[in-house]
Every structure is written in structure tokens, then in C-alpha cells.
Amino acid sequence: MDIRSQVSMVFHLDKCIGCHTCSIACKNIWTDRKGAEYMWWNNVETKPGTGYPTKWEDQEIYKGGWEKDANGIDLKGAGKKKGLRNIFHNPHMPEIGDYYEPFTYRYLDLIESPAGDDQPTARPISMITGKPMDIRMGPNWDDDWSGTPDYARKDPNMKDLSEAEQEAMFQLERMCFFYLPRICNHCLNPACVASCPSGALYKRGEDGVVLINQSVCRAWRMCVTACPYKKSYYNWHTGKSEKCILCYPRIEAGYAPACMHSCVGRIRYLGVLLYDADKIHQVASSDDASLVNNHMDIIQDPFDEKVIASAKANGIADSTIHAAQYSPTYKFIKTWGLALPLHPEFRTLPMLFYVPPMLPVMASVKDVDNTAQSEKMHDIAKYWPDNWLYDTSTEELWGTIEQARMPMKYLASLFSNGDEAMVIDRLKKLMAVRIHRRRVTVGDITDAKADKTLADVGLTAELADDIYYLTSLAKFDDRFVVPAAHREQAIEMLEFTGDVKGNTGFGFKDGSAERGS
Predict the structure, then answer these.
(1) Among residues 14, 17, 88, 377, which one has the fewest Cβ atoms lying within 10 Å of its Cβ?
(2) Start-end of H helices in 186-273
């Protein structure tokens, strides 16, 4: 057992309103400069949609992440041999058109144009060339376009849906979408780190944040190819690669990252997880059927005495262990089993997890006769089976989840490597919490009905109240449990002392292991 600490994140998709405040906060702090105009370390996509850069999820195009082979796993499109073949020409990288050509407007034309019969306009100009251009794309160009044939229907996650299922999704009365905020996942098995020929990328020993050493980076751009989430970028002005740093200067000072601090919907949670680094290769090499469960199992119980002892032996401070014990992300991921990783099939073991969206609850799933309902229940009865309030059976309620507007197969493609049962299990828990809270606040649901619903998903009333609190009422310090920084100990973990080799922080016990190999 080799216990390490990892700062992790959970995004609750039911709460995201797509305001892009997080994206603007990150842009203003980190990428509002020459060479980084097109970069959005934090972006918010509409799903279904092609995202940013276009079709980033399609690894047949970009060759990102890991693939399983006879020896375990291998980088799909980068690495030593593959990288050498593509060293002078790499076709598996996004072009500027796949992101978008950043633009601004020549606003002075509105003021300085001479008097005339025509209204002056501010022409769009490229922020790269400075020349006039036609705008064809933007970082959130497909925002809210859930039914468009150019974006939603070209979502790579649609490939497993039948033609009939796809058409049903885009019927006007069934059309729906949700927002998917994305940042660097700061993975346990980062493909970007493994792909870098110069060893510029590394994973910090004290908190697992993945960074790029700008003085070592030689602009090979293999990290851009290797990252399946396309969260490593090339700065055309400096000739270096860049990526999200999880606002580590803020974390070291005890503050939440800018995107999380500014989140209007309060969808974001940050906390420490303890994981067993000995299992990284085994978990990343898992069969498809067990990959997600093994991903969850690598996260260890912060109250377990053996885990605590191993963590202390690795130099993890008591304050970090304490933060792990009160981590909101641990609760969502392990205690309650509500959050799932994004595209676990990329095998990078991402440390950003998502609570899947419930979406418009049950509209158009089943026609009901509202005449038998009381006037008090008229507004909600149309969304539910006739007997959901008073009958102790929950079969019809769970059936409606499986028939919801957004196909379970689509959500499973995003969050569970195609396992629909995992997504349905999370949605049932979310629905059970809603029913329990309606029993508490409105009182029109019988105790038998609410208790049966909770029992079906393995929850108690106390756990449901805890989930409700952290989801809806949590204060700032409940959502962000940031451990105290111990840079002096982290540096010791990366140093060599005589013949004794220290831990490198990337899951290697042998400090001689080359980063990125």
C-alpha cells in the first residue's frame, strides 16, 4: 500500500446554469495574454454537442489517452516510438479552426469613421494576425443549440444510439440538453505526463496537481495529442505548452480556485482524496467491465488506520489527512456513490467527477389523467405516474427514469464506459432524495412511500438529509475543504538524499523513474 494525497473535484451537473462565469474568471486570470487568446482552461459545453475543440471526444481523430494491450496499456497516439514517427508532422492535433480563431472588433471605427450616409461598423479582426476576418467559430459557439444538425447531431457520444433513439431525442417536445463544465482532470495516470519527451510535465507530490515546467518544455506538443480531454494547449507566442494549474497559488494560500470561487450555481466541490499509488497500473489496465469500479476502489478510506499509517509514512501531513476525512468530494464519490468520472475509457483515471443531470424530470414520459388529482397537486401530477404519491410501489417511478428524455445510453457513454446501470443507480438516488425532501417540506408523500424509495437505493433519511445539505445549503467551507500547504515536505519527497531515493510523487517508489516514461 502506497498512499498518496490528491486534490479532487466534483461538479454537480443538475446545478449548472451555463452562465460561463467560471470560464471568464479563468480567462481573466490566466489566459488573457498574447499567445493564449484561444485557450480556455475552463470551458462550458452544451451536451449534446461537439464541444471545444470540435469533437475532442473522438479519439479516432485525435488519438488521445491510453489503450489496453497485451502488456497492460499504451499511449494511443503519443509516446516514445509513436512520437518519434510524428516528431516533424503530427496529424493528431487540433488545428486552430478546431478551437476557433480568436477575434476582437475594431471598435475605433465606430468613433473615428468620417461622417457619411452609412452607419459605421466595428469589423471583426483576428487576434493572431490582426487582419479582418469572418467569424466562423467560437469557444461556446454551439451554446444551447441542442437540436442543431451541425452540433448536437454530430456529438461523438451519439454513435451508440440507434437512428430511432437519435430522432426521438431531437423531437421538439422531447428536446433537452445540459451543460458540461470542463477543466484539467489532474489525472492519476496522466497521458500528457507520460507522453512528454523532455519531461516538462509532472505531477506534484503534495496534492497531485499536474503542471508544466516552462523552462524545460521544448514545444514537442505530444501532450496536446496525448491528453484525451484536450486540456493541454500550445502557446504560439512563447513556444511553450500550457494547461490548467488548478490555481495552485490560491490553494496553497487556502483559497478555492478562481473558477470554483466564482461559480454562480455553486456546482463545484473541492477536497482531498487518499489513493493507493500501487494500484495505478492495475486499475488503468482493467477490463472495460470493471474499469469504473476499480477507479473508485483506488480511492481509500481516510478513516482507516492502515491507510493513515501508510499516508504518514509517505510524509502526508496530519492536516491533509484531516482534510481528506472531511472532503466533500469523498462523500459524493465514495460515501454516497453519486459522482462518476468523465470518459473513464480513456484510462487516465481522472480526478474530476460529475454528478449526472436529472434533466427535465419526467415530461412527456407518460400521459396521465389529472382530473383525479387534487387542485393542490395539479401542477406536478402531469410529470409523474398516477400513483406515485401514495402507492408504496416504486416500480413505475424507476421505470420513468429509464425512459427520461436524455437516453441512459448517452449518459453512460459520457460517465460510465457504457454501463447504463451505474448512471441509473445515481439518478435513482437523486430522485429518492427529492422524494424524501418533499415528504419533509411539503408533507404530501406518505412515510411508507418515502422510506421505500430510500430503501430501494440503499439510503437512509439521515444520508438523504446530508446529501440535500451539501447539494443545496452548503456554505463555502463545506464545499471547499482546502488543506494547509506543506511545500517543505513536498520538496523532500522529490529529492534524493545519499543512496536513499525519495518518492517522486507520480506513483513511483523508485525516484530514479523517469517522469513521462
Answers:
(1) 88
(2) 191-195, 222-226, 248-252, 258-261
Closest CA to 36 of 218, 244, 186: 244
Rounded CA separation 335/187 (Å): 21
Distance from chain centroid for Cα 489: 29
pLDDT tier, 501 (very low <50, low <70, confident <90, very high otherwise) = very low
Reported as a single tens digit per residue, the pLDDT across 75-117 is 998 877 777 777 778 888 999 999 999 999 999 989 888 888 8
**How far does the chain reach from its first CA to its final CA, in angstroms?**
22
The amino acid at residue 196 is C
3-state SS, one letter per residue, for 402-440? HCCCCCHHHHHHHHCCCCHHHHHHHHHHHHHHHHHHHHH
**What is the distance between the alpha carbons of residues 31 and 45, in angstroms, rounded to a whole number?**
18
Inform me whether the pLDDT recorded for 511 exceeds 60: no
132-139 contacts, C-beta under 8 A, 24 or more apart: 132/106, 133/101, 133/103, 135/103, 136/97, 136/100, 136/101, 137/54, 137/97, 137/99, 137/100, 137/101, 138/100, 139/23, 139/38, 139/40, 139/43, 139/52, 139/99, 139/100
Residue with more model confidence, 146 or 459: 459
C-alpha cell at 173: 417536445
Phi, psi values for residue 308, rounded to 5°: -65, -40
Mean pLDDT of 28-54: 95
Question: d(Cα 134, Cα 238) in Å, to the nearest integer?
Answer: 26
HEC letters along 451-474: HHHHHHCCCCHHHHHHHHHHHHHC
- Asked whether the beta carbons of 378 and 367 are under 8 A apart, the reply is no
Identify the pLDDT of residue 147: 81
Q: pTM for the whole thing?
A: 0.87
Per-residue pLDDT of 218-252, as tens digits, reads 999 999 999 999 999 999 999 999 999 999 999 99
Residue with cell 466595428: 122
Residue 352: exposure state from Cβ atoms within 10 A (0-12, 13-18, ≥19): buried
